[in-house]
Amino acid sequence: MVGTWGSVQADWTLVIALILVWYVLIKTWERNGTLDRWNATRALGIVLMVRTQRGQRLLERLAKPRRFWRFYGELSLWVCSVAMLMVGLLVVLAFVSSIMAPPTVDPPSASELVAVPGLNPVIPLGWGAMAFVVSLVIHELGHGLLARGHGMRVKSFGLLQLGPLPLGAFAEPQGEELMRAPRRERLRMFAAGPATNIFAAMVMLLLLGGVAAQFVAVDDNIHVQGIVLGGGADDAGMQPWDTILSINATPISSLDDFRVVLENHQANESVDIVVRHQDGERETLTAVLGDKHAYYAELGWSEEMLESLEIQPGDAFLGVERLSESTSGIDRLAGPLSPRWEGSIGQRVLAAPFHVLSVVIIPFELNGVAIHPFEETLLAADEGFMGSLFGTSGLLFIANFLFWLMWVNILLGFTNLIPMVPFDGGHMLKDMLHAGLSGVKRLGRSIKLWDLHPMTVDHISSRASSYSSLLLLGMLLFTMFIPYL
What we know:
The protein is α+β, with helices and mostly antiparallel strands. The chain has helices at 2-31, 34-37, 56-62, 66-100, 125-149, 175-180, 183-212, 232-236, 255-263, 292-298, 303-308, 328-334, 345-358, 362-365, 373-377, 385-415, 424-447, 454-481, and strands spanning 40-43, 47-52, 154-162, 165-173, 215-217, 222-227, 243-247, 250-251, 270-276, 282-288, 290-291, 316-317, 320-325, 379-381. Strands 6, 7, 8, 9, 10 and 13 form a six-stranded antiparallel β-sheet that branches. It has a four-stranded antiparallel β-sheet with strand order 1-2-3-4. A two-stranded antiparallel ribbon has the order 5-14. Helix 5 packs across helix 16 (385-415), helix 7 (183-212) packs antiparallel against helix 12 (328-334) and helix 17 (424-447) runs antiparallel to helix 18.
C-alpha cells in the first residue's frame, strides 16, 4: 500500500506542477497582449478560450433547411431529456452506493481521474487526440446548426485548451438573441450538441459493421482470454490468449465443438489439450476437469439459476473464461451489426443502442486498446474490393479510428448531459424548471389561488438550478475521492 500511495502522490504533484506552469504562461500572455492578438481569453483561471470566425459560411450553407433542423432539434430534445434523466440517476446511485458500500480497492492515480488522451492510461494519445478533436467539432456543430436553424447568430467558434490538450470546443451565439429566444428553441439548441454526439456514435457503429464484414479469420480455432486461478487449465499451465487446437485428439474449431467435447466428459476426468501459445509454439497439456456446478455455486449463483442454465453437479469445467473465435476482436466492436452476430434485423436494431453504451468498458478491459494485439493477428482482409484496396493493416486502422470516434462521442455526449451547470444538461434543467414553474403560475392564475410574479419564477428556477448543480457536483466529487479517504 505504501508504494501505491507514493505513486498517487507523485502523479498529483506532477499534474499540479504542470497546471501551475500553464497558469503562469497564460497570465504572461494576458499581460503582454498575446491573448488579444489571438482573440483568446481565460476561463476558470487556467482554461484558454481561443476563438475563430472560420466556418461561418459553411455553417450558413448547412443550416439552410431550417424546417429540417427544427425537427432535428425536437428529436434531440426528447433523446437528451431521457438520457439526462438516466445520467442524473446514475450519479445519485453511484453516490448512494459509495456510501452504503465504500470501495475497498486501491484508489486510482491522478492520471486515471482525467479524460485526457495520453495522460489517462486507457485513452491513447494518438487515437484519443484525433477522436476528441473530431467529436468536439461534431458537438459544437450541432449547437451552431440549431442556433442558425432558429435564426440566432453565432459570433464565433473556438477551442478550450489546457496547455496543448483540447478540453472542449464551443459555438458562441449572440448572448442577447439566445436569452430572447423562446424557451423551446433554446432547449433544442442546448440538446443538439450532446444529441449529435450520440447520433454520431450510432453512425460509427453502422460503419464498424461494414468494416467487420471485410474481415475473415486466419484460422478456425478458438482462444481463451482468461484463466480461472486454481482451475484445471491453470494447473495444467494454460495461459491467457492460448489457442485450443484439440481436446483428446478431437479438433476444436468452434465454440460448439468445445461444448460438445466437454459434454462427453465429467468432473475429475483428465483430458489432453493441444494449445498454441502467443509465440506460435504448440504444447500438449494434461488438465483435470473441475465441477462446473460447484464452481458457480461458490460464486454465489442460486440453485434456481443453475437449474435454468441446465448446469448439473458433475458437469465438466476446464477453468477458462471468455472463449472466443478468431474474429472476436472486430466482432466485439461491431456488436449486433457484425455479419457474424446471430439475430434478426429487429433484434439487431434493439440491441444496437445498448451495445453503443457497453463499448465504453472495452478500453478499461484491454488496457487502452480497442482490439487486443493478439486478436489482430487472427484477422485478415477478405478478397473483396475493400480488402484488396486497404489490406489488413488499412482495415484495422479504419476499425480503430471508428471505434475511438464512437467511444469519445459517447463519453462527450453523456458527460454533457450531467444535469448541472456549465454542462448542456444543466442549462436544459434550468429551462425545464422555468417551464414547470411557469405552468404552476398559469395554473394558479386560472384557479385564482395564486399568481407568481415573472421575476419570482426566474429567481426560483435560477436558484434551484444552482443548488441542484452544487448538490450533484458534491455527489460526483464524493464518489470520485472516497477511495482516498
